[in-house]
Design a protein that fits this description.
The protein is α/β, with parallel strands linked by helices. The chain contains 15 helices and five strands. The chain has three domains: 8-158, Rossmann fold (3-Layer(aba) Sandwich); 164-224, Helicase, Ruva Protein, domain 3 (Orthogonal Bundle); 229-317, Zinc Finger, Delta Prime, domain 3.
């Protein structure tokens, strides 16, 4: 029977702390924990795809020398977010005796900020009761959503966004391992569409590689369903120049031809507005309009009408007389 290859997100996941990309200060602290054989309860906080889960698993693999059975319980709290999972799977695992060389067990709760308040209070009591033999690692995109009693029992490690150099190194490692042809423009496109999320970058790269081993810039944007920066800049510039019809034509291409959602377009407009070669007042007006448009769309307004209204407002501003 033919077996399928692992997704690249798993295939190229670091197997030890020494292989973790970026987060150097945190990795050094984790290595010190491994050396001592002991560590406190921890919260890994930061945006998606920057290494929180990878660091937790790598810590466990280094600590237990790869023998994770019976020593590590990994749960995704967004899938099982109620009090029952804390009273059931978590509590039962915390009760067991570790058979690993290190007399500590690790319970890793991914996306712990999705736990309900009741579940978090139950978790707090479990952490207190089994503090001698069990350590908890909680991963969260928003640490503020974890109740204060749990935060006070943990050391909070805040993961920083990966640098472009870190991401380039990772892309080149995959390209070498998979025999891909990638140039600098493709690397820049991958970094742009990933927006700091290494997991997303990996999935986009793998999807593009399924079509051709020679990756093109166009393939990256098509797979990621993202517009090229120049297309967004062109639309904004037409609006700022007062040429509403041309700005609307660019919007047609983005929404109808490229199939982008309003949220995708607004996000990219926000990113590109920072880099436009225009005066600061014009940038401020763009950002204010983007915020208003985003709010109305989130509240349920028609996406197309709101985006056109935003472009129309920018075009009207451009026609105002100085000092009016």
């Amino acid at each position: 029977m033919q077996t399928l290859d692992l997704p690249w997100t798993e295939k190229y996941r670091p197997q030890s702390l020494s292989e973790v990309i970026g987060q150097k200060l945190i990795v050094e602290r984790m290595k010190a924990f491994v050396k001592s054989g002991n560590f406190p309860n921890m919260i890994f906080a930061g945006s998606a795809g920057i290494g929180k889960t990878t660091c937790a698993i790598a810590l466990a693999k280094d600590l237990y020398k790869g023998q994770l059975e019976g020593a590590l319980l990994e749960l995704n709290a967004s899938d099982a977010r109620g009090i029952d999972v804390i009273r059931g799977a978590v509590k039962e695992f915390a009760k067991t005796i570790s058979i690993a060389g290190v007399p500590l067990k690790i319970i890793f709760l991914d996306e712990a900020d999705a736990l309900t308040p009741d579940a978090q209070h139950a978790l707090r009591r479990t952490m207190e009761k089994f503090s001698a033999e069990t350590r908890f690692i909680l991963s969260a995109n928003y640490a503020s959503k974890i109740i204060e009693p749990i935060q006070s029992r943990c050391v909070v490690f805040r993961f920083k966004p990966l640098t472009e150099e870190d991401m380039k190194e990772y892309i080149q490692r995959i390209a070498k391992g998979e025999g891909l042809e990638i140039d600098n423009k493709v690397i820049d496109a991958l970094i742009y569409v990933a927006d700091g999320d290494l997991r997303k970058l990996t999935n986009v790269l793998q999807s593009a590689a399924l079509q051709n081993k020679k990756i093109t810039e166009s393939a990256v944007y098509d797979v990621a369903s993202r517009a090229r920066p120049k297309e967004i800049v062109s639309m904004l510039k037409y609006a700022l120049e007062g040429t509403f019809a041309k700005a609307r034509d660019e919007l047609d291409v983005l929404m109808l031809k490229d199939g982008l959602s309003a949220e995708d377009i607004l996000t990219q407009c926000y990113r590109e507005a920072q880099n436009l070669n225009i005066d600061e007042l014009a940038k401020l007006r763009i950002i204010i309009d983007l915020g208003e448009c985003n709010f109305r769309i989130v509240e349920g307004a028609n996406e197309r009408i709101q985006l056109e209204a935003m472009l129309a407002h920018l075009a009207l501003i451009s026609k105002e007389k100085p000092g009016a």
